[in-house]
Fold these 2 entries.
Entry 1:
Amino acid sequence: MYKPVDNRNAISIDEARKIIVDNIDSVKLTTEKIAATAANHRIIAEDVTAPHDFPTFRRSGYDGFAMLQSDLTNLPADLKVVGDIPAGADFDRPLVSGEAVRIMTGGYVPDGADIVVMLETTRMIDKDTVQITEIQKKDNITQIGDYFKKGDTLLAKDTEINPGGISLLSAFDVQEISVYKKPTIGIITTGSELLNPGEKIVNGKIFNSNGPMIRDLCKENGADVISYTQIKDDPAALKSAVNDLLGKCDVIITDGGVSVGDFDIIADLAKSSEKLLFNKLEMRPGSVTTAFIYNGTLFFGLSGNPGACFTGFYLYVEYALRLMQHQASRCIECTGTLNAEYTKTNMYDRILRGQYKFVGDHIEIGRVGGDASGNLNNLQRATCMFEIPRGKSITSKDSRLRTWLLPFK
Amino acid sequence: MYKPVDNRNAISIDEARKIIVDNIDSVKLTTEKIAATAANHRIIAEDVTAPHDFPTFRRSGYDGFAMLQSDLTNLPADLKVVGDIPAGADFDRPLVSGEAVRIMTGGYVPDGADIVVMLETTRMIDKDTVQITEIQKKDNITQIGDYFKKGDTLLAKDTEINPGGISLLSAFDVQEISVYKKPTIGIITTGSELLNPGEKIVNGKIFNSNGPMIRDLCKENGADVISYTQIKDDPAALKSAVNDLLGKCDVIITDGGVSVGDFDIIADLAKSSEKLLFNKLEMRPGSVTTAFIYNGTLFFGLSGNPGACFTGFYLYVEYALRLMQHQASRCIECTGTLNAEYTKTNMYDRILRGQYKFVGDHIEIGRVGGDASGNLNNLQRATCMFEIPRGKSITSKDSRLRTWLLPFK
């Protein structure tokens, strides 16, 4: 009436991640050129270098007067104001001894001038004469190329662009850049118990909550979800859904069908794959989380259990999606200090969904809501996950635990 | 030849933020109904409550057999297997004494049954008979309403939805929700020195780098940028650009024109506003960052200096955009430990752009690139900002400093 549980080789979280690292090159992302204006949070695929020195002209650091340092040997010095250089203006001739020009912050320092005296330390003694009384310590001029020389790397390959990078591209008028294509994802949620939105609730059936969650998790982590399918626990339907997607996406994520019952349709697919990465983890929840490569596509089989699906996504799928894009996981690993004793023990490492806060210079972590993995009540509220190490000891308050701060929370 | 510097009343970062808090109600966001599928990272404007108990039926926590506890008084107990309840299936009659049904994780527990015995602790002694030998500690049944009762709050007003919340809405088939509209932003960058993309570089002119940065900062912080304009330092042009935007956006951000020179066109606008919030801050860079309310619209005047613009955006604009949406800033404030001595001192608090990392359970912070505020070289790389307190003392290595971890970096 039921198949015996497969003999599966359980491995640790770190071993599973190492296997992902070792196999990530199976899923290489190609590159594309895009407009810099659309580049925020895309990943640079080729170094962007400075097309010219920056600044391109000698620039005043302050509002004040540009002049020659040699005119300031004997103070007070009175200088003839021969012009005015507002921001954006050029000046038509070199400055000579005895002359000063009014200049704005960022303004063009004319040839000949080698110092800008701050406005606040000057005074006009008549309408055309400025007097300097203080000894000047700095020239207040940013030289050509002070910030970047032509050919300097502005944004290195494999950098995720943020608005700071956008400002850099804009400053050099770099209008197009080469980036990695976004990973394309197909999501297949399996389960004969799953209703479609709008259907009537009946005994035994539930609405699909993991599928929409996975879809938004993929999107916010930089992937393009190109297909989303909900099927029954039926090997033929799975095969057909998978065949529809092969060659069209970089990653296929299935949800459900990875448990130990009669309908382990993902396990069967994994068995026929060219490379099983893992199908049993020494962790709870989600010990049956599965990953394999099938027809050149990276598959993740997440548990249908909400808590396990959530945990499996952040620990393995997010990790892989970022690796594919030459990035580290955005789940920032750190050490949290537990705010209350935790008494449950397990032979596997237990990953709890929690919240964190900064208290002084420490990161305090604590549980949020129930830890039943079927319970949806803390997926919204969890801002971190942390690890209760396997073993028979109770985990005491103030234990320092491996913690992952979750992104976009 | 130039106007004297205005007498401006400098206030601290915290005082400025307090003023923003006190005036944020001037900019109330209205609400709109949107599809739950489009709700990730939107802010709930009305409590979402459970339309029914959850689970809606008694649910099995494991693969196994459902039966009556009263049949397990004397062990071993042999029970007749009268059926099979895969995921998603109903069962047509109550179970009675002596009977068991095979059930999957998440399956419907039939009336009459009051325990699910895990598959691993059972054995089939013939094709129709299952034998239980172990004493059972738990019933492994999730009762109707165990996770949520009808009317329970699923997502409270003012919650930012994340994929966990999407899963919750999906589980209850909530297809539409009420959210705050995104703040609408108009950006006006001012500066006669600014070139447009594609223009030829000439002495005195630069490409606009702050405008594109502000645009992407607004977008990634949940705002809709509905207008982006670049104008010269010209009060009439500013007036016209502002008039075009009034009534069309919640916030107008200007960049440039806030320094102490001849062309303080933003200061003039601020002077004519109904409410000046601040126009001088005890901080560097960005001491001239200005905020005011003009014709019912919240204005921020950021410095044209890249470092000051960046700092001003995160400390005040991001702060206000999040407040308008009933949220705390995503710049997470914490205490960082400085990785090297900092010798510059200032009468104002200095905000440095830096990077952080978790070292043990501490947050180590350090400078990145140069701190010249005109230098663009660290805006991309900065992942945090930290405060060098005002005063005459050198800031020693290992100083514990007020730090903001920057979002989306």
Entry 2:
Amino acid sequence: MSDLQFRGYAINDTAKWTEFEVRDFEPMGERDDTIDIEIKYCGICSSDVHTITGGWGDINTPLVSGHEVGGIVRKVGKGVKGFKVGDRAVVGAQIDSCGKCRQCGDNQENYCPKQVDTYNAEAWDGKITQGGYSTAIRAPERFVFHIPDSLPLEDAAPMACGGLTVFSPMYRFGVKKGMKVGIAGLGGLGHFAVQFAAAMGAEVVVFTHQQDKVEDAKKMGASDVVLTTDKDWNQKYSFALDYLLVTIDVSKALPLTDLTSMLYVNGVCHLCCMPDDPIEAFQTQSLAANGASISVNHVGNKIEAEEMFRLAADKNVRAWKEMIPMSQVGKGVQGVKNNEVRYRYVLKQDLA
Amino acid sequence: MSDLQFRGYAINDTAKWTEFEVRDFEPMGERDDTIDIEIKYCGICSSDVHTITGGWGDINTPLVSGHEVGGIVRKVGKGVKGFKVGDRAVVGAQIDSCGKCRQCGDNQENYCPKQVDTYNAEAWDGKITQGGYSTAIRAPERFVFHIPDSLPLEDAAPMACGGLTVFSPMYRFGVKKGMKVGIAGLGGLGHFAVQFAAAMGAEVVVFTHQQDKVEDAKKMGASDVVLTTDKDWNQKYSFALDYLLVTIDVSKALPLTDLTSMLYVNGVCHLCCMPDDPIEAFQTQSLAANGASISVNHVGNKIEAEEMFRLAADKNVRAWKEMIPMSQVGKGVQGVKNNEVRYRYVLKQDLA
């Protein structure tokens, strides 16, 4: 038995989404495949902000959010094969799936119709899942990731959602040397996307409305940066990109047809974002000029997560982060909402 | 010199789009690569109706529409290598491209930014292109297709747009045996799509709101037909399709999220339609459950066109058509608008 306490920073009301209070909670029930992890770090993802502000709908309160969790294994179920007590481990935005459907059998567990979110979802035993702004998390082995020894835990944690969400679609598309890849939006997801696309060998062009991020983008690996506040900003790369990953998380700031106009024939505009409001209505005519596609993903699978961590270790991909004590999570979520963060807040444990 | 007269059935006003009158017109100027074709047949495509009704915007009048043209070569420019006088030949929705850009060099001439539509577009010499409801057409060799001897000209003509528009995206996706392909909408495009998907070896499921088309769909090669008027019609194939080709040409009849819900992980919903109005606004969340894509195309290239005709000849794909005299084109466009056609009107020459 581990003596982990499950205790976290919870909000009670979406109208008061910066007001957190410490509460004990019950994790999902133990199974043969569950692992208990003592949390050291947790990234703040914009999903957390969408959720706690009610932007994605009603939530269960009190709620502990956070799904970019890094920690140390303290207990393993008797069926766990890949982890032992003392291992470093990371958990992302998904905590469970049915394990029986076609998707689960195909290593597409992130598309299981019964997938369980890391927080604000119903676990296998009916409990509401609670996230990583907390002392500890219990997760089935399939949703716990190994990281290479050389990758710092505080960098790996925010990659578990923010990194994987951009890595998985680029990995599936087959981003590689010789391709020209655009990254639109340079926030938490975008800053990982630039680094991973460059690590995969692509020529990377960043599209941002923020002049003060231009130098950062280049340091992250961009070969060019286009300011979307410039007139006709989408002309320079007209018909030029093989792939464009969009991390702009506000519908009205997402100029879909301008973005897709930069794709070469049959290029893909991948929307790595879930704005509160619908994407602008579009006409198929606007995509027909280049036969473009629009695609979407939901995080990634375990194989991709561990590939990502290996690539990060090999190519020195890191979270550009501001570390703050977990007790200052209210300030953190406010900073994400206000787009003040450069580029990810990582909460450091101060409860345990 | 051929003694072809260029004369066609033209409309003068989008408000009077069923009123055609016979007019002489000037084709694009001759070049070394142009071919003059005496027209025998021309299909009526729904694009023609979108255009002449003004649904896609203002047009040049008088206008001869029609871009599913089948005929006999009567003259070839001195640079023409693949055709000789007397050959059968087919022309589709595109009549020219710049020939110099990256797309043209990549056999992606259908995505050339300077592509020229077969009618209502400005040709290389400034003339407005006129379509196939007429006695003759002049086209550069790149936009004139060969057909196998065993394929009737009156079947090949409507395939030049209605067939190619559905063939090209399925060919690029790689539809093949072992795949489950949905076809939504069983009109002019859909009826070709069912036949080609089956000819490529896929298991084909048709989605239609018309009970009276069920038996036809099966004869065309569908293994199952789902009536979209049934309650929960999209449940049976939830997460089941690899590819879904949508030929529903009216935005409000196009239930995008119901359609995409039927795709397996990373499946593609291909919109082979250009409704007058925008597609419904969508949330990325609705595509995230299966990581689906939405794609669009603009007809196909010459290589694909000639592949399509070979497959049609080999696998006995035919236009299910109603032949009408070209002089009855007004009745034809009305029948397309009212969705009365089963499944393609083909105009038979009566002017020459």
